[in-house]
TrEMBL record:
UniProt-recorded name of the protein: Bifunctional protein FolD
Domain of life (superkingdom): Bacteria
Organism: Enterovirga aerilata
Assigned EC number: 1.5.1.5, 3.5.4.9
InterPro entries tied to this protein: Aminoacid_DH-like_N_sf, NAD(P)-bd_dom_sf, THF_DH/CycHdrlase, THF_DH/CycHdrlase_cat_dom, THF_DH/CycHdrlase_CS, THF_DH/CycHdrlase_NAD-bd_dom
Length: 298
């Protein structure tokens, strides 16, 4: 392996420590930021993520408000909870864990969140602000990708960036953030012609397709920086007993032979997601009180 492995665990911990330090300063002024997390249903992975979010929120010195609703909760019940959280002065950030059960329209729920408390950055107001270069709450995983990329290249200006994936929660916002960093950005997707050739153009390749190890070593430009957003659980026959393992959207071992720097899975982008959520909650808490937002990466 020749690539530098970019350590998301270490960078996530460093960012959380900086948030915690800023929170100590705010608390000294009588302000304790609060994050409300809404979980609907029993999805096992979501339960783990929500538990981790609450623990990290408390560790950073913030208040955590957990709301768990049954899988058969109605859209009206969820919307009513969101309205109450919008009106609650102790709550600076609101996050509705995705995916939602199939009978709930996520767009409707996300639209109900006050954009000033939208620490996921999924509300169309924040998406529009990001797209038009205005101050916004920015989606956490894309923000984490850019922080990791900038830890390798402090200036991304002029780089050829290819984002594989066009989702509203990762592909589109990460492309907007890279454009704001003055990259030349291509968004590729399932209907892109000759995807390997498009990827090989990239100085900075962001993989967010949700398909295990789809991006092969031969698709990578030598020396490129590869940011792997995928978190895919697959069978691990070598471990026996029906065991599974996590892999990204990039075939790590092959890609690491060619890339200059690469994020691993696990331990790359994932840990940055929660760190950026805390950063966004701090930003929302400051903005809502017209206090200056402490300097943070990206
Ligand atoms: N409302 C939201 N829902 C979801 C988001 C989100 O940002 N907002 N993102 C994902 C899940 N997610 C946070 O919610 C998340 C996913 C993964 C990780 C993480 O640290 N992963 C670890 C591996 C964890 C494991 O062992 O399973 C890693 O990559 O190292 C954190 C947060 C979907 N829903």
């Amino acid at each position: 392996m020749s690539a530098t492995v970019v350590d998301g665990n270490a960078q996530g911990a460093a960012l959380r420590a900086r948030v915690a330090e800023a929170v100590r300063g705010l608390r000294a002024r009588g302000v304790t930021p609060g994050l409300a997390v809404v979980l609907v249903g029993e999805d096992p992975a979501s339960r783990v993520y929500v538990k981790n979010k609450s623990a990290r929120t408390v560790e950073a010195g913030m208040r955590s408000f957990d709301h768990k609703l049954p899988a058969d909760a109605s859209e009206a019940e969820i919307l009513d909870l969101v309205r109450r959280l919008n009106a609650d002065e102790a709550v600076d950030g609101i996050l509705v864990q995705l995916p939602l059960p199939p009978h709930i329209a996520p767009a409707k729920v996300l639209l109900a969140i006050d954009p000033a408390k939208d620490v996921d950055g999924f509300h169309p107001v924040n998406a529009g602000r990001l797209a038009t270069g205005q101050k916004a709450l920015v989606p956490c995983t894309p923000l984490g990708c850019v922080i990791l990329a900038k830890s390798v290249h402090p200036s991304l200006a002029g780089m050829e960036a290819v984002v594989v994936g066009r989702s509203n929660i990762v592909g589109k916002p990460v492309a907007q953030l890279l454009l704001a960093e003055s990259c030349t950005v291509t968004i590729a997707h399932s209907r892109t012609r000759d995807l390997p050739a498009v990827c090989r153009r990239a100085d900075l390749l962001v993989a967010a397709v949700g398909r295990p190890e789809m991006i092969r070593g031969g698709w990578i430009k030598p020396g490129a920086t590869v940011i792997d957003v995928g978190i895919n659980r697959v069978p691990n026959p070598a471990a026996g007993d029906g065991k599974t393992k996590l892999v990204g959207d990039v075939a790590f071992a092959e890609a690491a032979e060619v890339a200059g720097a690469i994020t691993p899975v696990p331990g790359g982008v994932g840990p940055m997601t929660i760190a950026c959520l805390l950063r966004n909650t701090l930003q929302a808490a400051c903005d809502r009180r017209s206090l200056p937002v402490p300097e943070m990466p990206a």
